[in-house]
Design goal:
This protein is an alpha/beta fold. It has 15 helices and 10 strands. The structure holds 6-deoxy-beta-L-fructofuranose (LRH) and manganese (II) ion (MN).
Amino acid sequence: MQVEQHHIDELNQGHLAKHKQQFEFVAEGLSNVDTVIQKLIAFNITIPSWALGTGGTRFGRFSGGGEPRSLEEKIADVGLIHALNRSSNSISLHIPWDIPENAATIKALASHYGLHFDAVNSNTFQDQPDQELSYKFGSLNHIDKAVRQQAIEHNIQVIKYGVELDSKALSVWLSDGSNFPGQLNMRGAFERTFDSLQQIYTALPDDWKMWVEYKPYEPNFYSTTIGDWGQSYLLSSKLGNKAQTLVDLGHHLQGANIEQIVALLLMEGKLAGFHFNDSKYGDDDLTVGSINPYQLFLIFNELVEGMDARGMNHATGIGWMIDASHNIKDPIEDLLQSVEAIKIAYAQALLVDQAALKQAQQNNDVVQAQEILQNAYRTDVRPLVAQARLLAGGALQPLALFRKLGVRDNLIRERGLKTVATGL
Ligand code: LRH
Ligand code: MN
């Protein structure tokens, strides 16, 4: 199912007058509206290949039908999302869930939709049918050198797939850890992980990055070898300049101040990027901005301030990616909502009067500081995000057009109701 430009133009025609009025209302109060719009147009968020089907939990999975059955159909779905919101021009693959059998064909298909390949993800948290040694007791931290070697070779193979696709980063998340006290020697586990990552690091092409993702628990419930930002930062600092720390919003214990972690990683030049999602309890992988949109805004406020302090280009300086699981929502609708929420938080952060905020901080004027932040947060920036989308050739209302065109029904007609789960 393809969304053609004429579909988008027809829908936009019906909404143009109201949009123009709303846009002019919010724009007249802004001194930097053109800059904000240009930055929003340039800001794209990568779609994970494993989030185009229905997710699930150990208690069940309720497939919605019409889901992608192959890498080619996943690329088509990301192409569809990008056609609607002109803000999702890249896809991140997970190996072996999405092995590009023919890299040239896959690259051609992606560029047909205006897409490129972001980071490639390795997977040593599951045993594959043809795998010799099990990762039951870990992978890069495993006590058995042969298991570590198997995991190292897998990561090097993932880099090779990525090089064929012009990707520029290897993203590593390790479920390695322990379920019970005494099961692991913590120092030994960390040292073996570091030694294994070092061997993978040496296989990185010069212009590549290694993103080290941390997570406090699940699937291990006593310790995780790379459990928090400090452990990831320690590893990426010891590994070298190509290694940085990846922040998955759902990988924090209750009460963690994620925006502070982001500010410090940025200060150190060790912020790889993000796996955006939202959560109320654990690694819930819910729609971005669906539970705690104010935290997302505060994170973007630190990003804008910190990236400007380092003269970094917002769109290309770090990796912007969603990592969510759709248990009850239509995967494409969920992703459209997530991209919108991320761009709204970015737009709000661009409206923060950073100079006035610095002044308030200088004066310890706590009340004024909050007023400055919340003035930006309480500004309805949706017309700005829509204007950027319109100028980029997208739909003023992507979700409404997705539904109006009956895309999911068409996909079900094309692909059927029951679909294989490829991914989590
Ligand atoms: C682990 C994680 C990691 C992935 C996986 C799909 O919870 O966030 O980023 O590899 O989800
Ligand atoms: Mn993640």
